[in-house]
Design brief:
The protein has 10 helices and 8 strands. The chain is globular, with a radius of gyration of 17 Å. By secondary structure, it is an alpha/beta fold. The protein has an 8-stranded parallel β-barrel with strand order 1-2-3-4-5-6-7-8, surrounded by 6 helices. α1 packs across α2 (43-50) and α5 packs across α7 (135-146). The longest helix is centred in the last third of the chain and has 19 residues, at 171-189. β3, α3 and β4 (86-89) form a beta-alpha-beta unit. The structure holds glyceraldehyde-3-phosphate. Belongs to the triosephosphate isomerase family. It is found in: Cytoplasm.
Amino acid sequence: MRQMIAGNWKMNGTLAGLSAYASALRQGVEGVDLLVCPPFPLIRPLIEALGDASIWVGAQDCDAKRSGPHTGDVSADLLAELGARHVILGHSERRADHGESSTLVRDKARAASAAGLVPVICVGETEAERDAHETETVVRAQLAGSLPDGFSGLIAYEPVWAIGSGKTPSEDEVEAMHRAIRASLKKQLGEAGEAMPILYGGSVKPANAETLMRIPEVGGALVGGASLKAEDFLAIASAAVRD
Ligand SMILES: O=C[C@H](O)COP(=O)(O)O
């Protein structure tokens, strides 16, 4: 199955740098789905800079409510109107920095789906939870709490300790967690859980992408730091499995 390589710029990127990035990305990579999630203000300019290239643009968060007196928040409906196609939800940085619970993530996923966006829901254990051998329990609980009934979208497994650290789990560990997530998805969603893409995220780089993308049940990557340089992002995409 075609893999998805998604870039999460986090709080990085500039308007001034968009044109060069988009030109480089427009060279593209065949047979792989590409998604770039810049900060909110860059969504529309990036869509325009990418023009007719088959590259999706998404957001890094949305609010759970459709509209109203919520200063500083951004609705899923507005993101969809801007042309965003996906929205990352429940990233560990949102869960940690903004105290987002799985219940809130679930409500955001509902709002995103209602607006026609494709949610990419993130789950993953901290280093302390891993050391306490609680990885599967934590991730199962996050899935149970974060996915609305009838959820349709993607999952990203991101061990928190692997994010931006240069460390990754072993291939066996990644495979075991992706299989555990698949089992949870089937249990929660039935048939819909069987084919739902499960991305891996956490220190994916051009040097390790080929190894990671060939692990069974890995449906692509959610890339942070390495998505900021178009050449690195494309190198990772080149390592993805073709359809
Ligand atoms: O959303 C992306 C992840 O947090 C991974 O970030 P990273 O590739 O910089 O480790």
